[in-house]
């Protein structure tokens, strides 16, 4: 029958039944209203078909559910059920309050062994949360107020929480390891618990803190008859103050210092004030008062060592004797609150008061000015020979030595300026006399180094003979050495380097140029001797230059030199040692020409590939005749 309901008319072509219905869903019967779920009757049938069954409304259904069989005197009347009210609405702003206390141990006090702290325990019925509040007592010194914030408090280790059914009077509850004693509750709490069928225990009396009650008791006052009128003292000595100048010397301690103070003694009430004397640019904050105006104790009872002076004030019970005017005197030390002050002077009013009152006339001021420290002559130990004397000397000036200051201007002006000399060793050994060296003097740092060029079949390992260092002259004192300078390096001069003697036989052309440009720093005869030494060589260079200019293939030679320089730069070829010094040393006459055999021997020493076609071309262009080579032109290719 259900399937026939959805059949349509027959298809006139095929004779089959046509299905016209396409929606088969059911309507929803569950819904939410004001946050609560409820059910309702469907309004339409399956596929949104209209329901033709007689349906009852919700009000009619409720009436039928509450309708009873008709009795003799009619149908009984029954009140409709009350609406559902959630807990957060029914118990809104309804709180149960219990009064209680807990006991706290005080292990560091000799006057109280425990402390009773009163609290109020609040239970919020709307969400079953609790909080513990401690009433604030003024000047108690204890953080009070909210003791435990509002939350659900755990009851045991099984995860249960405290409920209002667990609370009663005259019981103990433990919250976070602290036990609270509930002694009473307010009227609303009592009415609520009794309405829920809970039998309340009788209330207890609140326990108060014994030390606080002791503090509230009035002190026993003993008035001793005295002939001295306090009011008379105030009227007689009002605005009369004794002024003393004192110094506090704390230099015996680490980082201690000496500071000046002014001590004021007020005759009106026997109080003392200490003020600090600030000096300009002393680096201290402007707080002039060190000890505010008060009565200062001179002798106290024994229990003052444990007396809490940071909380309580010192009274006459703790003090045996107070400071008076007779305790202050010029030239004596006085201890005020544990700090010793030396009184070295006072003002004129104070002097006159002591003359009239005590008959004292000795007011000679004490000189407390800081005397300058005696200068101790520093003794420099002798030089031990290790390292530079300037570096070793820095160890005598500071615990952490600093590098010696350098002449930066001189280093910048003479950067990469080197004077090179050809030297020979002077030795009784004939083999050493044949050795030739190149001495380099660095103008930026006044250091020198010695290099030995390689010599074939000499049996001596060539290379660095002396690293860069400063060499002192023979006979100079180790404490104040005199080092070799450019003026000491001339042709024929002898240089003694750590026990070895060297004679200067030749120099670089740059040496002559440097001496001529700085002729004021060199003797005139030294400059003239250097010019005479280079005169033949300059004539030879001019002759070679004229030969080069007379050659018809000068452009081809320049191109070959440029091509060779590019080849050397591309292959990062750097010759070992100073090639120019070696060639100049082999050229005895200074003509600028060398025999081809000697030229090839030097090329082999400096690992110059003379067999390479490029170098063969350059050597051919530098040839002069059949067996001579113009080596200055060839060396231009190595000046990259």
TrEMBL record:
This is EF-hand domain-containing protein 1. Pfam families: DM10_dom. Residues 574-609 form the EF-hand domain. It comes from the Eukaryota. It comes from Gekko japonicus (Schlegel's Japanese gecko). The gene is EFHC1. The keyword Manganese does not apply. InterPro entries: DM10_dom, EF-hand-dom_pair, EF_Hand_1_Ca_BS, EF_hand_dom, EFHC1/EFHC2/EFHB. Residues 92-197, 238-358, 415-519 form the DM10 domain. Its main location: cytoplasm.
